[in-house]
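Rotation project, supervised by the postdoc (A.L.). Task for the rotation student: set up a whole-complex structure prediction and record inputs and outputs verbatim in this book. Inputs entered:
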Amino acid sequence: MNSVGLFGLLGFGPDGWGEALLVGAAMTLAVAAGGFLVGMVIGAFGAWAKLTGGPVIRTFADFYTTVLRGVPDLLVIYLFYFGGTAAVSALARTFGADGYIGMPGFVAGVLAMGVVSGAHQTEVFRGAFRVVSRGEIEAGRAVGMGTTLRFRRIVAPLVLRHALPGLSNVWQLVLKESALISVTGLVELLRQSQVGAGSTGQPFDFYIAAAMLYLAITTVSGWTLRRAERHYTRGARRG
Amino acid sequence: MDIPFLSETFYALLTGVPLTLQLALLSTGAGAAFALVLAAMRVSRLPLLDAAARLYVFVFRGTPLLVQIFVIYYGLGQFPAVRASFAWPFLREPYWCAVLALTLNTAAYGSEIVRGGLLAVPYGQIEAARAIGMSRSLLLRRVILPLAIRQALPAYGNELILMVKSTSLASIITLMEITGIAAKIVSETYRIIEVFVAAGALYLLINFALTRLIAAAEYWLTPDLRPASLVPRRRLQENAS
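Outputs recorded:
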């Protein structure tokens, strides 16, 4: 087994797993990005509900963020994967199809990560909205901007700017939590490493390679987000 | 709603609580000790120690916990040297692998919290302690650590809650804590929603109890921030006389 060596094993040759691992890493990025975007939509509505909703809506939003931040993400993924499979199968039965239909791991993963990160992003957006200075919104109103225009030109850009540090934390969290989606059998980076480890009998090499790819992804995205932060706060007063 | 099934499930899940708590408390405790060492390395002003601690934190915070668990549980056994070593009886056990991975992971996050606490100790306090001739160890024990720990406690409470949630990953390497039992019941009964909702409720309960405990510890550790009237009057009189 050892004949190909580490670089042969993880490289791009005929015996190499390099390409498979990179494809897995791309899948990790895709599922994390999907989950993050779904979470962003949920987070925007959640923050809106918490800031302007009536008591019922607010209680509901509080319940959502409390529960989703207090429960392990693995449970949520299981719930969406197994629960989704049951739901899809039941739906198929009503249309006459027979037997077992699996929930695609990708969809379950994106939804689960979306619901989990949505709870975090709700808090991030809510916090960001609170530090937008009232004067800016008032000024927009004073020059006769409508609600939509004010949201588009003033509220959204300012909230996004203040939310950026929090959002980058959530993104790093989602990236790392996306490894849990391997339990659904979706061939992302960790699952691909498991497959490689199983078929070559060299788990250490594969899991270390996976760790290094994750590290590369989190490092590059952290660096990019910090640059973005600097770029978007260049007009803001510091200190 | 099937109340008998729910309560039966809930009782079955309760048997996983000790293992979940054990994993969380053991690894947070050991992790906190290690975090203190790492934080001391960061503030030591020795470039080599500082760089080593930085690298450690960078690697363990930049990779998923599940990958760390897999490297330790599946990966290390690949080497004959490890299998022959004294540590193998531990590294063979999923329990100790989970504890080790969780400990190493939380130490990386914890060290940043502790470092923040250490840096927040007002310099005047240290100066005052030096001025009355405290030795380095006494200064550390009486002034720096108490102040740093108080400062770090709220953030460390969050870390403890995160660790309780992280212990669920131990179920992936066959440990039967709450999530492991839940997955087993689901595979036997196919009653997905009830079982996972019950498990989620149990985690919420644990985390709620922990937040209360942490808040109580914070209250107890910061008598200086409480209103003065709460100081027992008798002690005031004793001090005055």
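Student's summary: Chain A touches chain B at residues 66-67, 70-75, 78-79, 82-83, 86, 175-180, 182-183, 190, 193-194, 197, 201-205, 207-208, 210-211, 214-215, 218-219 (CB under 8 Å).
Supervisor addendum: Chain A has a mean pLDDT of 90.
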